[in-house]
C-alpha cells in the first residue's frame, strides 16, 4: 500500500581513506590502536604546529570523485583546477583544535552522479576534510565518565553529499551499497561500517499532497513539506533503512495533528540521533547553518591546483567500475541483470574468475549458476576458494548432468581431500551420467510441443503449470537431474 506522502532523502556519506598516515601530519592512520597513541602536536592542534597535506589522500579522493562522475575543481571565476582549505569552527570534546580543516565554497569536486537501480542520484560535492576523534561513553547506565580517544583525529575523510534524489529507504541502502562496492574496488577505503571508516548521515523530510493549493512561504502549491531532520552517524545499512522509515512515519504523524495550521517556517530544522535498541530517532539539537561555523580560508595551507595531466593519470589507473562491469557482463555474456549484479557485488576477482570459467566452458549461464550454487555459499571472497578456474570449469563440464546434491557431495570431498575430480567420484561412488544437456533440451522442446494446455496456463500466470512439462521429461529420461531439467524448461518457456 502506497504511503500518503513522499519521503525525500539526501545522504551525507563520510569515508575514511586508505592512507598510511593522517591528512595533515605523519601519525599512523590505523584502526584499533591503544587510545591516544597515534597523536602529535599537529593533529592535537598545539601552538606552533603546522599542517602539511597528504598527497596520497588527495590522489585517492580524486579517484573517488572521478568514479562519482564529478567535475574536478572547476569553479566559475577561479583558475582551472583551483581548490582551497577552510576552517570550520565548532567546539566538541573530541575536536582538540576547536575547528576542523575542511572545504566550504571551493571543494575539489562537485556536480556528479551515481546510478542505482531505477534512479540516478545527483552528487552535490565530494570534498576532503579531517576526521574528529571519538568519545567513549560509559555504557553502564550509572552516569560514568566519557573518555576521549584522539587517535582518529586528523585522519583523511571524504565527504560525499548527495542531492535529495532518493524516495525510499531501499534506494538509500542501494546507494550506500554501490558506494561501498565502488570505493572498495578502487582501493580508496575499506568501508568497514563497524570500524567507522564508512559513516552516514541521512537528511529526511516528507512531502504531503494537499487538497487545496496556496500554503505558507516555502511550500509548494500542491504539497506541504515538513522540516528537514538530519539523522547522524548511522553505522549499519540496517540502521539507515530503519531510521529513515521511522523518521518519515514520525513526521507524518506530527503533520496529521494539525494539517490545516501546519507552518514550515515555525518549526526549526533539527539534528537527531538513532537509537537502534529503541528503534526511534531522538532530537539532539537544532541544525546549524553555514554561518554558525564561521568558515574562513585556512591560513596555514596553500590552495591546490589540479592539472589535467593529474586527472587523466588517476582516471587511467581506475580500471573498470562495477556499473561498467555489470553492463558489459549483460551485453557480452547474455547474463541477466540479477546474475551480473551478484557477480560484481563479489568484487573484480570474482568477475575475472567467472570470465575464465565461462571462456573455458563456452557457457556463461552455467558458469554463473554453478558459482552461485557451489562457491558463493562457501566463501565471501573468491581468493579463498582453493580450486583454480580451469579445474572448476572442468568440474562444471563433467558434473553438468548430475543432480545438485551429487555436485555438492563431490565438491565437498574435493575441498577436503584434493581437487582431483576422478578421485572424488571414485571415493564417493558418484558416477558420471550419460545425460547430455543437448539431449535433455531436445526432450524439453518436445514436451512443450506436446503439452499446449500447460503452456497456455503458464502464459496466463500459472507458474505451477510448467511442472507437468518437467514431469513429462523426467518420465521419458529416468534418472535425469531434476534441477537441470527445471532450468531447461524455464529457459525454453522464456523463449515463447
Could you describe the 3D structure shown?
With 496 residues, the chain is an alpha+beta fold. The protein has three domains: 6-308, no CATH class; 320-428, no CATH class; 437-494, Arc Repressor Mutant, subunit A (Orthogonal Bundle). 38% of the residues lie in helices and 19% in strands. It has helices at 55-67, 169-185, 237-257, 308-317, 322-333, 337-345, 348-361, 364-375, 389-399, 404-417, 421-428, 437-450, 452-459, 466-476, 482-494, and strands spanning 6-16, 71-72, 82-83, 86-89, 99-102, 109-116, 119-130, 134-137, 146-149, 156-162, 198-209, 223-225, 229-234, 270-275, 280-286, 296-297, 304-305. The strands form four sheets. Strands 1, 2, 6, 7, 10, 11, 12, 13, 14 and 15 form a ten-stranded mixed sheet that branches. Strand 13, helix 3 (237-257) and strand 14 (270-275) form a beta-alpha-beta unit. Helix 10 (404-417) crosses helix 11 and helix 12 (437-450) crosses helix 15 (482-494). The longest helix is centred in the middle third of the chain and has 21 residues, at 237-257. The protein is globular, with a radius of gyration of 28 Å. The two termini are 33 Å apart.
Short description:
The chain has 15 helices and 17 strands. It has 496 residues and is of the alpha+beta class.
Amino acid at each position: 500500500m502506497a504511503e500518503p506522502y513522499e519521503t525525500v532523502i539526501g545522504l551525507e556519506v563520510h569515508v575514511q581513506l586508505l592512507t598510511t598516515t593522517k591528512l595533515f601530519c605523519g601519525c599512523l592512520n590505523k584502526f584499533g590502536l591503544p587510545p591516544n597513541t597515534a597523536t602529535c602536536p599537529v593533529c592535537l592542534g598545539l601552538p606552533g604546529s603546522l599542517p602539511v597535506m597528504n598527497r596520497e589522500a588527495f590522489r585517492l579522493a580524486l579517484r573517488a570523485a572521478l568514479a562519482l562522475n564529478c567535475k574536478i575543481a572547476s569553479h566559475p571565476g577561479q583558475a582551472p583546477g583551483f581548490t582551497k582549505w577552510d576552517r570550520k569552527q565548532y567546539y566538541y570534546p573530541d575536536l582538540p583544535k576547536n575547528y576542523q580543516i575542511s572545504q566550504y565554497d571551493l571543494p575539489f569536486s562537485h556536480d556528479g552522479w551515481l546510478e542505482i537501480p531505477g534512479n540516478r542520484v545527483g552528487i552535490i560535492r565530494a570534498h576532503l576534510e579531517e576526521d574528529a576523534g571519538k568519545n567513549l561513553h560509559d555504557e553502564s547506565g550509572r552516569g560514568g565518565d566519557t573518555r576521549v580517544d584522539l587517535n582518529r583525529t586528523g585522519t583523511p575523510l571524504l565527504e560525499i553529499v548527495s542531492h535529495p534524489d532518493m524516495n525510499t529507504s531501499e534506494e538509500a541502502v542501494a546507494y550506500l551499497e554501490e558506494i561501498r562496492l565502488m570505493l572498495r574496488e578502487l582501493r580508496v577505503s575499506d568501508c568497514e561500517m563497524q570500524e567507522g571508516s564508512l559513516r552516514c548521515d541521512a537528511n529526511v523530510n516528507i512531502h504531503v499532497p494537499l487538497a487545496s493549493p496556496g500554503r505558507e512561504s516555502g511550500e509548494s502549491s500542491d504539497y506541504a513539506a515538513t522540516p528537514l531532520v538530519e539523522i547522524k552517524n548511522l553505522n549499519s545499512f540496517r540502521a539507515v533503512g530503519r531510521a529513515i522509515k521511522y523518521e518519515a512515519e514520525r513526521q507524518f504523524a506530527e503533520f496529521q495533528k494539525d494539517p490545516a495550521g501546519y507552518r514550515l517556517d515555525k518549526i526549526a530544522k533539527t539534528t537527531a540521533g538513532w537509537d537502534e535498541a529503541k528503534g526511534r530517532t531522538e532530537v539532539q539539537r537544532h541544525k546549524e547553518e553555514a554561518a554558525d561555523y564561521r568558515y574562513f580560508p585556512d591560513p596555514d595551507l596553500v590552495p591546490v591546483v589540479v592539472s589535467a595531466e593529474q586527472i587523466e593519470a588517476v582516471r587511467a589507473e581506475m580500471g573498470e567500475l562495477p556499473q561498467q562491469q555489470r553492463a558489459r557482463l549483460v551485453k557480452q555474456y547474455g547474463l541477466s541483470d540479477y546474475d551480473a549484479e551478484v557477480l560484481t557485488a563479489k568484487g573484480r576477482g570474482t568477475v575475472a574468475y567467472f570470465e575464465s570459467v565461462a571462456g573455458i566452458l563456452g557457457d556463461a549461464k552455467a558458469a554463473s549458476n554453478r558459482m552461485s550454487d557451489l562457491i558463493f555459499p562457501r566463501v565471501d571472497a573468491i581468493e579463498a576458494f582453493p580450486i583454480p578456474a580451469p579445474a572448476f570449469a572442468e568440474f562444471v563440464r563433467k558434473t553438468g548432468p548430475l543432480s545438485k546434491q551429487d555436485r555438492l557431495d563431490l565438491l565437498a570431498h574435493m575441498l577436503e581431500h584434493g581437487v582431483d575430480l576422478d578421485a572424488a567420484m571414485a571415493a564417493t561412488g558418484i558416477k558420471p551420467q550419460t545425460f547430455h544437456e543437448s539431449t535433455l533440451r531436445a526432450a524439453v522442446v518436445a514436451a512443450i510441443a506436446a503439452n499446449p494446455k500447460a503452456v497456455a496456463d503458464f502464459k496466463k500466470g500459472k507458474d505451477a503449470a510448467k511442472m507437468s512439462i518437467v514431469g513429462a521429461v523426467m518420465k521419458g529420461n529416468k534418472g535425469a537431474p531434476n534441477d537441470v531439467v527445471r532450468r531447461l524448461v524455464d529457459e525454453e518457456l522464456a523463449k515463447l
